[in-house]
Design a protein that fits this description.
Low-confidence stretches: none
Mean pLDDT: 90
Number of strands: 0
Length: 282
Amino acid sequence: MLVATVLALTAAVLHAGWNLAVKTSTDRFLALWGQFVVGGAIGAAGLVVLALTTGDTVEAGALPWAALSALSHLPYALLLAAAYDHGDFSLVYPVGRGAGALGAAIGGALLLDDRLSPGGWMAVIVVAGGLASFVPRGSSGRGLRDACLLAAVIATYTLLDAQGARRSTGVGYVLCIYVGAGVVISAYGLARGRGHELRELGRTSAGRRSVGLAGVASVVTYGLVLAAVRRAPVGYVAALRESSVVLAAVIGWRLLGEPLGRARIASSAVVASGLMLLVAFR
């Protein structure tokens, strides 16, 4: 259990960490694009290794869901960049992650026939209350709006991935999503004529280090969660993973000097508590 705890908390730190790297970038979409290119390359290499060593491939029934999930990562990247452009880290991250998980839970109950117990619905109310407490504490209306739109996309791809994961086995499905997202976001960036900017970013050691570390962190985060759930109940791991919303509020206040630090930490703690209850009552 101790190993699982360390793995889950490390995943929470890494997820908040690569988001912080995006927030502090001068061009946030470009940073995300580079990150997804690295993640896609890792995913492609992983698929090749799987095919050569185990013969595993992504099941045909899961491919449409992987494709839809990959497509949804384009609005995810655009909205995440916009939200960090206009909103504080201590606002955007907790609201985006918290409301995204909340939307996925409700969407699963309404669309995927996932049952929520009375305790689960109580947890939904707790999360909603914690999110509502952010409203008067938003640094800008646009930042909060973009965070809510981001949450809708997170909920959407979470539901898509739930369907895809139920039609697949192993990690091939997730690797396929990384590849697809890298291709989709690259197609958009190239169509907007920004390919030369990504190349310039890749020519600098600082740029390569930044997008490389963020891309690796995004993939490793998922790997750590997979490793943790092999050693402890899924609910326990998921609850620890959601502690990242509180961590983001602390980072925004103490490292970035954002306002309303204590109030946002309190709101994030309520959101995290509700998410933990939601997992516990599944």
